[in-house]
Amino acid sequence: MKQIYDAGIRTVCFISPVFPGITDIEAIIERTKDQCDLVWLENLNLRGGFRKTIMDYIAEKHPDLLPLYDEIYNRKNRS
User: Fold this and answer.
1) Which of 7, 11, 42, 56 lies 20 to 30 angstroms, CA to CA, from 63?
2) Which residues contact 39 (CB under 8 A, 6 or more apart)?
3) φ and ψ at 32, to 5 degrees?
4) Are residues 57 and 36 in the same domain?
5) Interatomic CA distance for residues 37 and 43, integer angstroms
6) Are residues 8 and 37 both part of a single domain?
7) Nearest Cα residue to 71 out of 20, 25, 16
8) pLDDT (tens digit per residue) in 7-62
9) Structural domain count, the chain
10) Terminus-to-terminus CA distance in the chain, angstroms?
11) CB neighbours (10 Å) of residue 45?
């Protein structure tokens, strides 16, 4: 990406999906800031059967984040 950026071609860093409390957006931006023009972010979207898979993963690997994920994805509180 750096070679393309240095050649004057517009580059974009697309961070997707963003897992709340897990994805280190600041670190990614810091690492790519000298080789991209834009940063795009996409929220984690939990639809259908995928919701259970992700919620089970969070419960197992990041149980401290389970209340946050419950608030966002089950209670629809995006604040």
Assistant:
1) 42
2) 12, 13, 14, 15, 28, 29, 32
3) -105, -5
4) no
5) 20
6) yes
7) 20
8) 999 999 999 999 999 999 999 999 999 999 999 999 999 988 889 999 999 999 99
9) 2
10) 34
11) 11
Mark whether 1 and 37 lie in a shared domain.
Answer: yes
Give CA–CA dist 37/74, Å, rounded.
Answer: 35
Q: Which amino acid is at 36?
A: C
Say which residue the tokens 């931006």 belong to: 29
- Concatenated DSSP letters of the chain: -HHHHHTT---EEEEEEE-TTTS-HHHHHHHHTTS-SEEEEEE----TTHHHHHHHHHHHH-GGGHHHHIIIIIS----
Domain assignment of residue 5, given as a range: 1-44
Q: Are 38 and 2 in the same domain?
A: yes
Token pair listed for 33 = 């800031």
- 65 and 36 in a common domain: no
Which structure tokens are listed for 46? 């939990």
> What's the chain's length in residues?
79
Q: Which two tokens stand for residue 14?
A: 């697309």
